Amino acid sequence: MIICIGAGPGDAAYLPQRSAQRLQEADVIAGFDAVLDVVSPLIPAAATVIRMGYRDQVAQLDEVARLHHNGLRCVVVFMGDIHFSGFQYLERVERACGHPVETMPGISSAQVLASRAKVCFDETTFITFHRRGDLSPFKRHLVHVLQDGRNAIVIPCPWDAARSFMPCHIAAYLLENGIPPQHPTEVWENLTRREAEWHGTLAECADKVFSDMSIMLIRTLQPMASQIEAAGTV
After folding, report:
1. Mean pLDDT of 35-57
2. pLDDT in tens, 124-148
3. What are phi and psi of 215, to 5 degrees?
4. How many structural domains compose the chain?
5. Whole domain around residue 155: which residue ranges?
6. Displacement of CA 16 from its chain's centroid (Å)
7. What CA–CA distances, in Å, run from 194 to 85, 172, 188, 191?
8. Model's pTM, two decimal places?
9. Which of 52, 76, 104 is the last residue of a domain?
10. What is the pLDDT of residue 234?
11. Residues 72 and 145 in one domain
C-alpha cells in the first residue's frame, strides 16, 4: 500500500485525524525534511524514514516504490493539501510506483488565509506559482482573475533568483500589466506558526521583501456582492 497525505500548513494540530492514523500505521514514511519535521511526533519508532530534497527526490521516491512493491505500508507526506500545489510531486510519486496512488487531503495555507482574512472561496481564485516549468500561463491567468473582479489567493515561487516570483515580483508584474495599484493586498507569513501579516496596496507590495513561507491575498477593488447588486440595477 502507498498513500499520499497532506500534513497541513505547519502546526501539527491541523493534521487530519485520519492522516495521523495512517502515519502511525506506516512501515515507511517519506517526504521533504520540513514536512517530516511537522509529523515527527507521530512517526512510529520502528518505521523507516526516507528524507529527500529537491535534487535527490526522484532517487528517494524510487526507493519508496521498491519498498511499496515489497509489501510495506508506505506514506508520502506533503505540506498543506496535495490538491492545492502538490500535483507535480504527486506525479513523481506515481511515476516511481508505476500506478495511481491513494491520496488523502489536508488543510492548505490557502484555506487558513481565507479564514484569517475573511474571504469566500466562491468569490476568490487560488493560483500557485510554487511549481516547475513555465509560469507565464499562470501569470496571465492572475491578470485575468483580477480584471474579472475576483479576489486572488496566490502562493509565490521562492526558488533561486532566476525563477523567483515572490510577492514583490508578483505585484510588479501586475502593475506592468495594467492592474490598478490601489488593489488592497495582504501577505501572510508562517501561517499557524509564528504568524506575521502585512496589509497595504499592490503598489506598496512591489517594494516589500517577504520570507519564503509567505502567501498573498489580492482583494478585488469592488466586493463581489456589490458587483452583483450593481448588475441587477442596470
Report:
1. 95
2. 999 999 988 899 999 999 999 999 9
3. -140, 150
4. 2
5. 109-226
6. 17
7. 22, 27, 10, 7
8. 0.86
9. 104
10. 41
11. no
Q: So what's the pLDDT on residue 91?
A: 94
Percent of the chain with pLDDT over 70: 94
Strand 151-155 to 124-128 pairing: parallel
**Do residues 124 and 86 share a domain?**
no
**Model confidence over 72-91: pLDDT tens digits?**
999 999 999 998 888 889 99
Domain boundary among 104, 134, 165: 104
Res. 51: pLDDT tops 50? yes
Where do runs of H (alpha helix) occur along the chain? 17-25, 33-39, 57-69, 82-85, 87-97, 109-117, 136-147, 167-176, 202-205, 224-232
More confident residue, 109 or 233: 109
Helical (H) or strand (E) element with 81: none
DSSP secondary structure letter of residue 161: T
Positive/negative CA dihedral, 41, 43, 49, 53:
negative
Q: What does the DSSP 8-state code read for residue 191? A: T
CB 20 within 8 A of CB 38: no
List strands edge to edge, sheet with 28-32.
48-52, 28-32, 74-78, 2-6, 102-104
Other beta carbons less than 10 A from residue 209's beta carbon:
8
